[in-house]
Design brief:
Distance between the termini of chain B: 57 Å
Number of domains of chain A: 2
Order of helices and strands of chain A: HHHHHHHHHH
Largest sheet of chain A: none
InterPro entries (chain B): WH-like_DNA-bd_sf
Oligomer: heterodimer
Number of helices of chain A: 10
Number of strands of chain A: 0
Order of helices and strands of chain B: HHHHHHHHHHHHH
Number of strands of chain B: 0
Helix content of chain B: 55-70%
Helix content of chain A: 40-55%
Largest interface: A-B, 60 and 69 residues
Structural class of chain A: mainly alpha
Number of helices of chain B: 13
Strand content of chain A: under 5%
Radius of gyration of chain B: 22 Å
Distance between the termini of chain A: 16 Å
Shape of chain A: extended
Structural class of chain B: mainly alpha
Largest sheet of chain B: none
Chain lengths: ~200, ~270
């Protein structure tokens, strides 16, 4: 069975979709360049053709879905908080047991989880599946985590790194990889966690 | 005034050039960004895409990105809702009254997944401006179709799909009736029919085909050769990775027979 598409494949399909023409030469170019996506590219090529043919067909608007989507988006990513303080802290309601279970699921030391709850780590550097796993572990959504992590670092007291450098604060977020190195996650484990399975 | 108010896109193509918006989108944006927000919101209500005042979906994407740095929640909400309507409009329909049908569960599920993928990009774009949404300012509907492809691919991992039973097209000989049925159907023309209801029936008939047959149909519509002895020519046989050109022909013939049947059945009921 095919695993989840890596993020790059999503980008390739998007790039194909916005090509100015979807003629034979464009399709062939992508098929030659990305043979592993042959089925998806051909499907998408046909989808785009059918989309054009469906143009003008009246689509009824599903307002209930629109409203539900907005409510969900709002609760997942509340309005930008200039001070970074009004965004709900998804870690606040997590129990100690949940945090321990999460640590075990990911197979990382507690310092790694702590770096998330203190917004030390730069969320953009964290593979989507890790964000998703953390979100599930604390009964939140990936958007909750992202919205929360977008705020500035609030390095918790009591956290100390066995590093020559003092922990950086404010905008000095560290990458997920840097974090794993600092927390002494073994190389092999680190590679697995950094894998982009999106 | 006189200064450029709409910043260019930043996403790079593989060849290093930068994506750009269509001229009509640029034109509309230059106008829209000068309007008071109340007028933008009023313009969003225009449903007729042929109207001069209609706000293209690509523009809605730009406007919501441009609202990144302000706290006007109601304006953002209006744009977000409209984006959801636009997403819903370009995806296969979800029929409330037929909600029990397998296809419909898939359509509803796909719509949610596409929304979630879009939300992911929107959230990233809100926190750190980047190029995650640039594709949607270039060709909105097409980019959504690409997200749908990704979403469905992911969904197959989780949902036990009810696979259609496909004939063993590697060995089966097509029946004489099928052979006969292939000849006179020009699908390209059918898809260009001026009757939108008929077109939607043709679309539905193609969508209902098994994946393998549908792919052959697309490549035939692209006028790719079924097979070629020339190594440099990409044939349908090579693209779908089968050993015999007969497999390609069988899939094509079965697909045409199904489409014809679907269209004829349709005409009886209308």
């Amino acid at each position: 069975m095919t695993d989840r598409l890596p993020h790059d494949d999503e980008e390739i399909l998007l790039a194909f979709a916005v090509e100015p023409a979807h003629d034979r030469s464009t399709l062939e170019r992508y098929l030659q360049a990305y043979p592993h996506l042959a089925d998806d590219l051909i499907d998408l090529s046909l989808d785009l053709r059918l989309l054009r043919a469906s143009d003008g067909a009246s689509a009824s608007v599903d307002e209930a879905w629109v409203e539900a989507s907005w409510t969900a988006f709002q609760s997942a990513a509340p309005a930008r908080a200039p001070a970074g303080s009004t965004v709900a802290d998804p870690f606040a309601s997590a129990t100690a047991d949940e945090l321990v279970a999460l640590r075990r699921t990911l197979g990382v030391p507690s310092g790694v989880i702590h770096a998330f709850s203190t917004r030390l780590v730069d969320i953009a550097s964290v593979p989507a599946w890790v964000v998703e796993t953390i979100a599930q572990g604390i009964r939140a959504t990936a958007d909750d985590i992202r919205a929360f992590m977008a705020g500035s670092n609030r390095l918790a007291t009591g956290l100390s790194y066995k590093s020559d450098e003092a922990p950086r604060v404010a905008d000095g977020k560290i990458s997920f990889e840097e974090l794993l190195v600092q927390c002494k996650v073994p190389e092999e484990k680190r590679q697995r966690l950094l894998e982009d399975r999106a | 005034m006189g200064t450029r108010t709409v910043p260019p896109l930043t996403k790079q193509k593989p060849d290093g050039t930068i994506y750009s918006r269509r001229a009509d989108v640029e034109g509309s944006l230059e106008r829209l960004v000068e309007l008071p927000r109340s007028e933008v919101i009023a313009a969003l209500k225009i449903r007729d895409a042929r109207s001069d005042l209609y706000v293209q979906s690509e523009c809605v994407v730009h406007l919501i990105r441009a609202a990144r740095n302000d706290n006007d929640q109601s304006y953002f909400a209006e744009l977000y809702r409209e984006l959801m309507r636009r997403i819903g409009a370009v995806l296969p329909r979800v029929e409330g009254e037929r909600s029990g049908l397998v296809e419909n569960v898939h359509a509803a599920d796909a719509r949610d997944r596409v929304r979630d993928l879009f939300n992911e990009r929107l959230s990233v774009d809100r926190t750190q401006s980047g190029s995650a949404l640039d594709y949607f300012e270039v060709m909105f509907a097409d980019a959504i179709a690409a997200l749908r492809k990704t979403a469905m691919k992911r969904a197959t991992r989780q949902a036990a799909r009810s696979e259609r039973i496909e004939a063993d097209d590697e060995t089966n000989e097509p029946s004489l009736a099928v052979e006969k049925a292939v000849g006179s159907l020009d699908l390209k023309q059918e898809l260009l029919s001026e009757d939108p209801i008929y077109r939607s029936r043709v679309v539905a008939a193609i969508q209902a085909l098994p994946d393998k047959q549908r792919r052959v149909i697309e490549m035939i519509l692209q006028e790719m050769p079924i097979d070629s002895s020339d190594e440099g020519v990409l044939s349908i046989r090579k693209a779908i990775g089968v050993s015999s050109e007969k497999t390609v022909r069988n899939r094509r013939d079965a697909a045409f027979a199904s489409i014809r049947k679907a269209l004829e059945i349709g005409s009886d009921h209308d």
